[in-house]
Automatic annotation (TrEMBL):
<dbReference type="InterPro" id="IPR014622">
    <property type="entry name" value="UCP036794_erythomycin"/>
</dbReference>
<dbReference type="InterPro" id="IPR052036">
    <property type="entry name" value="Hydrolase/PRTase-associated"/>
</dbReference>
<protein>
    <recommendedName>
        <fullName>Protein-L-isoaspartate O-methyltransferase</fullName>
    </recommendedName>
</protein>
<dbReference type="Pfam" id="PF05139">
    <property type="entry name" value="Erythro_esteras"/>
</dbReference>
<dbReference type="InterPro" id="IPR007815">
    <property type="entry name" value="Emycin_Estase"/>
</dbReference>
Length: 421
């Protein structure tokens, strides 16, 4: 089977050397409303550069209107305000990304994303307001930061919803911005803030039309309230059920995407940047056996597979930014050659050049046998990656296309003062 798959890759893949050579992918994208761009690690320079180049072309040639990333909504709002010209304080993206001060900072505070943010700002300066591209974070982690944003805005506007935010804030205050402490208290001692956050979300959503203005205040309030409710649920659940907390997180990310699409009257077309484990359809992996869902699966089910185009990424060897343990300082680690028999190993054996492989009706059957597919997170141990870094995947069912780079190098992080919350 291995040699047959190597031969199939060799026959079907298109080589590329320049990061602008993506015509083969652009020809596949026509009516889709969502393009999901993966990565097999959170610390690989080439993945960020390729996603940026693809995103630029999707904006320029296909009319895509926003970028959504696996990041915090409040920090990404700083970027959104900068690229749309609403931020009069900062003069360069390098200053704006200081907002990404929660570990792992390197995911968005890096040289590669700075260059892309500057491009987005320059592009928006040539567009009328209604055609400017947005930049949004769709993750669930920013519980306290989102409450901070709600408090700040509702105080400024003297809103009647301010009391609901204060109640929620007061409920969480004893946990000293430590989500693990809240999770234990909520899961084992029934000391939770569920009622407060549900009331907050309800109050904000009932009055959301009152906050619409030229700087997206209504959307900002609604999503921060949604994060407060879903993050409470996530942190309460993660202590006792890893599978369900994963599902809460990925459902949340889809819900935020839906709020963005609705806010722009369903005219929006989004490019989503997340790890392969989020964008690659979970039904084509062993995640499904564990009862896990993900963004790619949910969006295909919700929108219809023809409306969603998913691109996976991978590499054979190189270097990567990661940490040895959660919360530790990042370091540059060597990414060893891919494990024998893995998808990345087969791609390498089919020829050492960079490749793009489009999965279509003519070749899907050739690539629908489960094969180990490398996944590197923010915590990584190259020495032990064979014990848990390969996800059995039916590649042609998991993705619509795959971008393979033989030799990759680590991201270039910026110095950011980390906020330990």
């Amino acid at each position: 089977m291995e040699q047959a798959m190597i031969d199939s890759i060799r026959n079907c893949a298109v080589p590329f050397e320049d990061f602008h050579e993506f015509d083969v992918i652009l020809r596949e994208i026509d009516q889709q409303r969502l393009v999901l761009l993966g990565e097999s690690s959170h610390g690989t320079s080439e993945f960020y550069k390729i996603r940026a180049e693809l995103s630029k072309r999707l904006i320029l040639e296909k009319g895509f209107t926003f970028i959504a990333v696996e990041g915090d909504w409040p920090a990404c709002q700083a970027v959104n305000q900068y690229i749309k010209g609403w931020d009069r304080q900062h003069t360069h993206a390098r200053d704006v990304v200081q907002a990404f001060n929660r570990w792992p900072t390197w995911m968005w505070a890096n040289e590669e994303i700075v260059e892309f943010i500057e491009w987005l700002k320059q592009y928006n300066q040539t567009q009328p307001r209604e055609k400017q591209v947005g930049f949004y974070g769709i993750d669930v982690y920013s519980l306290w930061e989102s409450m901070d944003e709600l408090l700040r805005y509702l105080k400024k506007t003297n809103s009647p919803e301010l009391e609901a935010v204060r109640d929620a804030f007061a409920c969480f205050e004893p946990f000293n911005r430590q989500p693990e402490k809240y999770g234990v208290s909520a899961a084992f001692y029934q000391e939770d803030c569920r009622d407060e956050v549900v009331k907050l979300l309800t109050d904000i959503c009932l009055k959301r039309n009152c906050y619409f203005d030229d700087v997206e205040s209504g959307l900002n309030l609604e999503v921060n309230a949604l994060i407060t409710a879903n993050a409470e649920n996530y942190y309460r659940t993660m202590v006792t059920d890893d599978t369900e907390s994963w599902n809460i997180r990925d459902r949340h990310m889809v819900e935020v995407l839906n709020r963005i699409m609705t806010f722009f009257s369903h005219k929006a077309k989004g490019v989503v940047w997340e790890h392969n484990t989020h964008v690659g359809d979970a039904r084509a992996t062993d995640m499904a056996d564990e009862g896990m869902v993900n963004v790619g699966q949910i969006l295909r089910e919700q929108e219809g597979a023809e409306q969603v185009y998913i691109i996976g990424f991978g590499t054979h060897r190189g270097s990567v930014i990661a940490a040895s343990r959660w919360g530790d300082d990042f370091k540059i680690m060597i990414t060893p050659p891919a494990e024998a028999g893995s998808w990345e190993d087969l791609m390498y054996k089919a020829g050492a050049s960079n490749k793009i492989l489009i999965f279509n009706e003519n070749n899907k059957e050739l690539f629908n046998q489960p094969v180990g597919h490398r996944a590197i997170g923010v915590v990584y141990s190259p020495k032990y990656e064979h014990l848990g870094n390969y996800v059995p995947s039916k590649m042609s069912e998991r993705y619509n296309a795959f971008i393979y780079v033989t030799n990759t190098k680590a991201l270039q992080p910026l110095e950011v003062e980390i906020a330990f919350l």
